[in-house]
């Protein structure tokens, strides 16, 4: 069994095993003609249930053969140009290389004595990101597992900075289309039901600042404490960017912590063409960035940044065995002092390799390409009488629905769109997402693949229309 431990004696075994795995995946990526096979839970579950985990195969090739059947064949492939569903990007090769290195070396970024240079690399990337945002000389931050954790940590700091023991009086103001992790965070932070005040958005799905001013005033009038405003720079559904300068102005006036959730829109930080869309972000107290959304990084890779490094102390605990207090005076850089996690992956290495091989403009140009594509897609949809498109995109998301000429009943239109999404997924020809707008079912393309073309978009729209028409034809048959 020791031959499976990665060490000086097994370097050759490691090279062969990993190469064999890489070759399988490369073959898969090269030949996948659809993003998905359409495999159902009922088809896959018995195969996975049928594996006796107490009877190992003792052979890498056999395990990879088995994995082909269980997973690789029927995985959902984000690199395919017709995967258009959620906020998942195709990944860049330098980052995948970084992933291979970090899992083999297996540094843990909680303490200096488990990571050495890894800690310094992470710190450089935090400084680089804070510099891109413009947070100023006292900024700091830490890598996290994702936007959900980054938002939680930012709101923890905001809660502590509100300096009130009366949690029931604390309020977080966020647009009605902000990410649900804001609500989840409020719950985890012990804030009561109703502590997240939804601020209305306009037709463009951006927070209405008049409404925000109204809610802030109401909080003060009612003796409540607006502990944070969450502005979203790239909403999950619409890619809309809240008006950051106006929101920052209101936060300054009310002394409220401004958190900018740029989980999606952070790609603009490196965009050669669209950086101005984030103007105002530099006035935030904290910012969430998800490199695993718009920097083409493998999951997971995210960070929370703060304007004032001192606020990170709210996440600090000292343990004698790990990061005793004396290490602070000894200036030993232990990242666990700033993190909600203890043992933590060296995800920063992926971004490091990406910047060193491709450069920031390279990444930003890829993000610009998908934003340009969304604009083309919007024009296609706006000109197509079969579809209603919800919002002109600021980033790379299109929300639309099929509107059959023959059907006026809103519930019938909902059903046709739901059916089309399901049928498309079952066919595996394309994967699209769905959401609700004003209570009605819509479909969604999140465009993050520069290989997707306007031709792909047009073809997928035809497939959607075809499935919806088929459903409507069959319902008419059933009714007659
Ligand atoms: C705006 C926004 N914030 C936060 C998140 C949560 O990020 P994660 O899935 O990385 O936890 C998402 C995820 O889609 C998001 O769109």
TrEMBL record:
<protein>
    <submittedName>
        <fullName>Lysine decarboxylase DesA</fullName>
    </submittedName>
</protein>
<keyword id="KW-0210">Decarboxylase</keyword>
<dbReference type="InterPro" id="IPR002129">
    <property type="entry name" value="PyrdxlP-dep_de-COase"/>
</dbReference>
<comment type="similarity">
    <text>Belongs to the group II decarboxylase family.</text>
</comment>
<keyword id="KW-0456">Lyase</keyword>
<dbReference type="InterPro" id="IPR010977">
    <property type="entry name" value="Aromatic_deC"/>
</dbReference>
<dbReference type="InterPro" id="IPR015424">
    <property type="entry name" value="PyrdxlP-dep_Trfase"/>
</dbReference>
<dbReference type="InterPro" id="IPR015421">
    <property type="entry name" value="PyrdxlP-dep_Trfase_major"/>
</dbReference>
<keyword id="KW-0663">Pyridoxal phosphate</keyword>
<dbReference type="Pfam" id="PF00282">
    <property type="entry name" value="Pyridoxal_deC"/>
</dbReference>
<dbReference type="InterPro" id="IPR015422">
    <property type="entry name" value="PyrdxlP-dep_Trfase_small"/>
</dbReference>
């Amino acid at each position: 069994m020791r031959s499976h431990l990665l060490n000086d004696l097994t370097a050759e075994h490691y090279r062969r095993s990993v190469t064999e795995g890489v070759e399988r995946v490369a073959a898969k990526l090269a030949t996948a003609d659809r993003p998905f096979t359409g495999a159902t839970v009922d088809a896959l579950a018995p195969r996975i249930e049928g594996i006796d985990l107490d009877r190992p195969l003792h052979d890498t090739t056999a395990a990879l053969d088995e994995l082909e059947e269980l997973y690789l064949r029927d995985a959902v492939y984000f690199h395919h140009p017709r995967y258009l569903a959620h906020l998942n990007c195709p990944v860049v090769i330098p980052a995948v290389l970084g992933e291979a290195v970090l899992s083999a070396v297996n540094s843990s970024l909680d303490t200096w004595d488990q990571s050495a240079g890894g800690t310094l690399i992470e710190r450089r990337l935090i400084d680089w990101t804070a510099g891109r945002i413009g947070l100023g000389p006292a900024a700091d931050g830490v890598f996290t597992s994702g936007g959900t954790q980054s938002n939680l940590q930012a709101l923890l700091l905001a809660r502590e900075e509100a300096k009130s023991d009366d949690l029931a009086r604390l309020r977080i103001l966020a647009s009605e289309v902000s990410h649900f992790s804001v609500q989840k965070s409020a719950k985890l932070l012990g804030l009561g039901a109703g502590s997240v005040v939804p601020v209305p958005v306009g037709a463009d799905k951006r927070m209405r600042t008049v409404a925000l001013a109204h809610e802030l005033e109401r909080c003060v009038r009612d003796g409540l404490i607006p502990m944070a405003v969450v502005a979203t720079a790239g909403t999950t559904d619409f890619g809309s960017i809240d008006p950051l300068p106006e929101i920052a102005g209101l936060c300054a006036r009310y002394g409220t912590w401004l958190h900018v959730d740029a989980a999606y829109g952070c790609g603009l930080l490196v965009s050669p063409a669209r950086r101005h869309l984030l103007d105002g972000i530099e006035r935030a107290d904290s910012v969430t960035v998800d490199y695993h959304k718009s920097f083409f990084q493998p999951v997971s890779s995210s960070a929370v940044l703060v304007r004032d490094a001192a606020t990170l102390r709210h996440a600090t605990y000292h343990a004698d065995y790990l990061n005793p207090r004396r290490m602070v005076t000894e200036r030993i850089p232990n990242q666990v002092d700033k993190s909600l996690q203890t043992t933590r992956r060296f995800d920063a290495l992926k971004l490091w390799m990406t910047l060193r091989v491709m450069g920031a403009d390279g990444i930003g140009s890829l993000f610009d390409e998908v934003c340009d594509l969304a604009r083309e897609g919007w024009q296609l949809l706006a000109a197509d009488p079969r579809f209603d498109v919800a919002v002109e995109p600021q980033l790379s998301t299109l929300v639309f629905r099929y509107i059959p000429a023959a059907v006026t009943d809103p519930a019938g239109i909902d059903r046709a769109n739901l059916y089309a999404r399901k049928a498309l997924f079952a066919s595996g020809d394309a994967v699209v997402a769905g959401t609700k707008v004003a209570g009605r079912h819509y479909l969604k393309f999140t465009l993050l693949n520069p290989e997707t073309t306007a031709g792909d978009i047009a073809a997928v729209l035809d497939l959607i229309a075809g499935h919806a028409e088929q459903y409507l034809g069959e319902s008419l048959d059933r009714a007659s």
